[in-house]
Amino acid sequence: MNRLKTILPIIVIAQFCCTSLWFASNAVMIDLVIIFGLTETASGNLTSAVQFGFILGTLVFAVLAIADRFSPSKVFLISALLGALCNAGLIWEGNSLTTMLCIRFLTGFFLAGIYPVGMKIAADYFNKGLGKSLGFLVGALVLGTAFPHLLKGLTDAFPWKSVLLTTSSLAILGGLMMALLVPDGPYRKQSQGINLSAFFGIFRNQNLRSAAFGYFGHMWELYAFWAFTPLMLQTYSDLHPETTFNIPILSFLIIGIGGLACVLSGYLSQTYGAKRIAFLSLLLSCGCCLIFPFLFAVQSEMLFLAFLLFWGMVVVADSPLLSTLVAQNAPAEIKGTALTIVNSIGFAITIISIQLISGLKTVTDTNTIYICLAFGPILGLLALSRKIK
User: Fold this and answer.
1) Which of 48, 140, 182, 220: CA 20 to 30 A from 358?
2) Which of 185, 101, 66, 87 is nearest to 144 (CA)?
3) 3-class secondary-structure state, position 305
4) What is the C-alpha separation between 178 and 176, in angstroms, rounded?
C-alpha cells in the first residue's frame, strides 16, 4: 500500500513532464511566424500535424499491441526520449514550414507512447478507484499542455528556444522517472501477440462503445478550444482596445485550471459514478460552446475571463472519467490497445474540428463560428444517455 502511494505521484509527474511537448510550438508560435516567415494558418497546421502524428502513432501502437506486449514503462521511456529529440529540432535555424510540420508530426507520433501508455500504466496499478487515479493523470496532461504558455509568459525576455529546450528536458526527465521508478503493475496481463480481431472487435462491447462515443464527442471540442484559446483572448482585446491581456499567462490559467477539474471530477466519480459526472461535465461544456460567441460583446473583461476559466474546467473534467469507462469495460489483456484505439479516433476528430474553425476564420470574421464546437458534445451526450448494461 505504501508503494502504491508513491507510484501515482511518480506517474503523474512523469506524465506532466512528457506532455509538455504537446503545445510547445503553440506557446512560441508568434516567434516562429516572425522568424521563419510563416502564414496566419501556421498555428492550426502545426497543431494538426501533432494530432496527425499522434493518430498514426496510436494506430501503430494499437495494431502491434505494443503497450500490451512489452513493458509499458520502457515503451514510455523510449517514446519520451524520441519525442524530446524531435521537439528540440524546432530550434534548427534552417527550418521551413515543411520541416516544422514533419517535426511536429513525429513529436505527435511519439506522444502516442506517452499519454495512452501512461493511462495503461495507471490502470495496471489501480483497479479500484481508477477514476480518481486517471483524474490525476489527465490533470497532469492538462498542466503539461498548458505549461509552455506559462514558460513563454513569465517574461518577454525568455528566449523562445529556451521554451523548446525546457520542455524537451522535462520529457527526458519524465521518461527516466517512469522507467526507473515504476515497474510493471500488479494488474498487468501481458498479451501473447498481435491480435487483429481484438483491434477491430472492441466496439462490439456496448458499454465500451457508449463510453468511446462520449469520448469522441468530448474530443471534438477539447483540443479546438485549447488551440484557439490565445486567439479568443486576442480577438476580445482587438474588439475592446482598452483591455490589456497577458495572453500567454491567461492561456496557461484557462487551460491549466482544467487539471484541477480533472482531479475534482475523479473524486466526485467515487461518490456519484463516472458516467454521471462525465455527462454533467459534457452538458456544461456544450452550453459554453453555445453561449461563448455572445461574450465578445460584453464590456466586462473579468466576466469574459471568468467564463473562459469555467469553460476551461468543464471542457476536460469528463476526459479521465470517459477513459475510466473505456478501461473498465475492456478485457484486461487488450486494455492498453483499447485505450490507444479510442485515443486514436478521438484525436482524428480533433483535426476535423481544428481545421473547420481555421477554415471558417479565413472566410468570415464572425465569432459565431465557435458554436460549431457544440456539435461533438451534443452527439457525445446522446451516446452517454443510452442505458448502459
Assistant:
1) 140
2) 87
3) helix
4) 5
DSSP 24: H
Number of C-alpha atoms within 13 angstroms, CB side, residue 87?
37
- Taken in order 50, 379, 276, 260, is the CA torsion positive or negative? positive
**Confidence class for position 123, pLDDT limits 50, 70, 90:** confident
Instruction: Say if residues 54 and 131 touch (Cβ distance below 8 Å).
Output: no
H or E stretch at 359: helix 335-363
d(CA 125, CA 127): 6
Grid cell of 341 as nine digits: 484505439
- Please enumerate in sequence order all residues whose Cβ is within 8 A of that of 257, keeping only pairs 6 or more positions apart, or say none: 309, 312, 313
Can you tell me the distance from the alpha carbon of 101 to that of 106, in angstroms, rounded to the nearest whole number? 9
Q: Enter the C-alpha cell of residue 327.
A: 478501461
Distance CA 237, CA 72 (A): 45
Q: Residue 5 in contact with residue 166, Cβ under 8 Å?
A: no
- DSSP string spanning 194-229? --HHHHHHGGGSHHHHHHHHHHHHHHHHHHHHHHHH
Tell which residue, 150, 15, 28, has the closest CA to residue 80: 15
Whole-model pTM?
Answer: 0.82
What pLDDT is stored for residue 389 in this prediction?
Answer: 45
Rounded CA-CA distance 245/297 in Å is 16
- pLDDT, tens digit, 9 for 90 and up, residues 186-201: 777 666 556 566 656 6
Residues 6+ apart with CB under 8 A from 13: 140, 174, 177
Query: C-alpha grid cell for residue 270?
Result: 467515487
CA–CA distances in Å: residue 337 to residues 3, 65, 277, 378: 26, 6, 25, 27
Give the rounded distance of the alpha carbon of 23 from its chain centre. Answer: 9
Q: How far apart are CA 379 and CA 373, in angstroms?
A: 11
Q: Read off the DSSP letter of residue 78.
A: H
Each residue's pLDDT tens digit, 71-109: 899 999 999 999 999 999 999 888 888 899 999 999 999
- Distance separating alpha carbons of residues 276 and 385, to the nearest angstrom: 10
Is 262 in contact with 135 (CB distance < 8 Å)?
A: yes
Q: Rounded CA gap, 322 and 328, in Å?
A: 10
Q: CB under 8 Å to 382, separation ≥6 — which residues?
A: none
